[in-house]
């Protein structure tokens, strides 16, 4: 399952690191990153869907990672606030989102937080960020400006072009913001062009590596 993401973590994490796992789902990556950063590290995993978060809690407990992984119920966006989260109604769905779609069945009231606010309030030094948020990618990146430009973490960014468009945003805006943050983009070991990046229509992932 997503071997490239596991490879990314193995290449970029070390004991003592702090990880933000945005879009925690059932905890596969929270557990993996917790094992890599060890007892001196910390993983904050964000999962807004209550049922899925319950499964996440069980997975973390079963893998004895509770002292390393802190599970959060907020959705990460561009700023603090209150909104609704759209649930597809399918148990442990990976398509629940801040973005309404034809799959959305129910609305869950939730709290929003930005990366910058969360990190600032806890005086964290973030080493790595995983972002898998079903169309809200640009909002997460906007809300992480301070962290990306001052702390220079690496990131694994999942991109959902159809949901991004439904959110009234574009891959071009994401490309431009990543460039503004001086992050090099890597796709399967190659550096994509803006033309290729903005023409994608299916789900894909890229690595973001600080250029300086």
Structure, described:
The chain is 35% helix and 25% strand. The chain contains 9 helices and 10 strands. The strands form 2 sheets. It has a 7-stranded mixed sheet with strand order 3-2-1-7-8-10-9, with helices on both faces. A 3-stranded mixed sheet has the order 4-6-5. The two termini are 31 Å apart.
Brief summary:
With 212 residues, this protein is α/β, with parallel strands linked by helices.
Rg, Cα atoms, Å? 16 Å
SSE series: HEHEHEEEEHEHHEHHEHE
Mean pLDDT metric: 93
User: Which ranges are low-confidence, i.e. pLDDT below 50, for 5 or more consecutive residues?
Assistant: none
Strand content: 25-35%
Q: What separation lies between the terminal Cα atoms?
A: 31 Å
Q: What is the molecular shape?
A: globular
* Total number of beta strands: 10
Query: Structural class given helices, strands, pairing?
Result: alpha/beta
Strand order of the largest sheet: 3-2-1-7-8-10-9
Helical fraction: 25-40%
Put simply, the count of helices is: 9
Give a quick account of the main beta sheet: strands, pairing sense, barrel closure. 7 strands, mixed
